[in-house]
Structure formats: C-alpha cells, structure tokens
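Hi F.,

I've been meaning to write this up properly since the lab meeting, where we talked about keeping a consistent format for the predictions we share between groups. The idea is simple: the sequence comes first, exactly as it goes in, then the structure tokens exactly as they come out, then a line or two of notes. No screenshots and no reformatting. I'm using this chain as the first example so we have something concrete to point to.
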Amino acid sequence: MESSHQHGHHHDATQSQGHAHGHGHGHGHEQGQGHGHGDGHAPAAAGHAPAAEDWFDEDFVKAWLKEQEVQADARRRQFVALRAFIPKNPDQEFRYLNLGAGSGALDAILLEQFPGANAVVLDASLTMLSATRKTLARFGERVEYIQADLSSPEWLGAVEGPFDFIISTQTIHLLRHSRRIRELYREILKLTGHGGTFLNMDYVRPARAELAPLADWIARDAEAGFAPSDGSVGLPATMLEQLGWLSEAGFGCVEVYWKAMDLALFGAIRDHLHMPWGHGSAPASGHSHG
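Output, unedited:
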C-alpha cells in the first residue's frame, strides 16, 4: 500500500531577499526551458519565474501544472538525460529519493525504465503532491509520498535513508541562500548510502556577471535551442561553487555531467561509484542499458 507522510513547513524569513525564483521551499519540479519549481516548476515563457509565485497556493499550482503540458516534450528530453546517469540495469533493485516531486513526470520516466526501483517523492506543496499521486498511481506500493520543507533541516525527520540515489531538478536554487544550500548538501550526504549518488539538475550563476548578456545573444539563434537567462546573476552559486560545496559536504567525487549556459546536471558520489558489474571497467563483452 502506498504511504504518505506530512512534515510541518518552516518558513525562512530571509527568503524575501535575493533572486526571484519562487517561494524557496525546495519544491523543485521537473523543468522546461524557464527557471522555476523543479519538476520544472517553470512558467511557460523562458526566463525566471515571477516574484509573485506561491507554491502553497492551490490555484497557482494548478495553473502551473496546466502550463507544463506545453513543455512536456522539452521536459521529457531533460528527464531522460538524467535517467541515463543512473547506472543500473532495469531488473536491479534500488531505492531513490526525489527532492521536489513536482508533477511526478520525472518519477514516471524512472519507474518505467527501472521496474526494480522504489521511490520516495518529497514536496512541500500538498497540491503538488496530489498531482504527483495521480501521475504515479499505477506504480502503487513502489512510491512513498512525503510532504516536507527543505528550507529547514527538520525535513530529515520525515525521511528514512539510506538511498542509492538522491535526485533533484530545479529545486535547490529556490533556497537562495548559500549557507542553507551548503547545509542541505551535508544533510543529503547523511541519507546517501555507500556508493550512492546525488544528481542535481539546477541553475547556476555565470562565473562573471559580464557573461550574462551572452546567454541572450546565444538565444537569438533559435535552431541552437538555448533559452534566455535573464536574472541568472542573482542565482546563489556558480558551477565551481556548487562543486566546492558538495566536496565540502563530504562527497568523495563531484562532477559536471553537462551544462547549457545556466542550466547544469551535476553529481556527487559517496565513496566510489557502483556500476552494474561492480567496480572498475566494463566487462569485455559490454553491457546493455536496457
């Protein structure tokens, strides 16, 4: 039987400052082209979400979910890219945590590809979790639903590790403050099992503010497929800072898997990487991704 837990919200009084990416509670919903709420809690138009967004407002969340329908193809491509970085064969059993479940679209892609996987999906918004339940209903007992707020360390009390993978998409930047993000990375490490991996698809600040206009210039080439990045200079960290914070948290290996202007997929491994065949290079006969 599917399970569900609620964890109280702990609002950060400092969240009214800084980059206007959203409510800042780590809803992290799979994303399309714009900045936004993780599972891509992103507005239909490219660029950053409006400051008036409220992920605890039922009407706002329902409108956001409706807007995501037009971004479904772009979001699927990005979620499939994240899926490719999970080194498991389809029949292998593993457990993962999604920080910012959003609509559940990412989890549906993962659970379809990996029948041996079980998911714990976390979001601060009850309305968003309700939508996630509908998306993932067919997976039954393989999914556990948790309401918790990443802006406070108390979210750890709602989740029981360890996990083979912890994933997040367009969520953690919503916390806005470097101190809280660095704390969160240490909390994630605590829940990551031996050889476990943290995968984060999120927005990063340009290395220098003068690079920000380059994104708008690149976006003029429609065939290239890049979106404008207005406001990216207000993001909490550069790519190098993110990697430094993950190393500081205690992860043994950190890496950028791909980056397209301010959107990046980066990861951190506890101890050493576990591949389907064990440690070291792939067997001479090769292997299948399923």
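Notes:
DSSP finds seven helices and eight strands in the chain.
The first strand starts at residue 3 and ends at 6.

If this format works for you, I'll send the rest the same way.

G.
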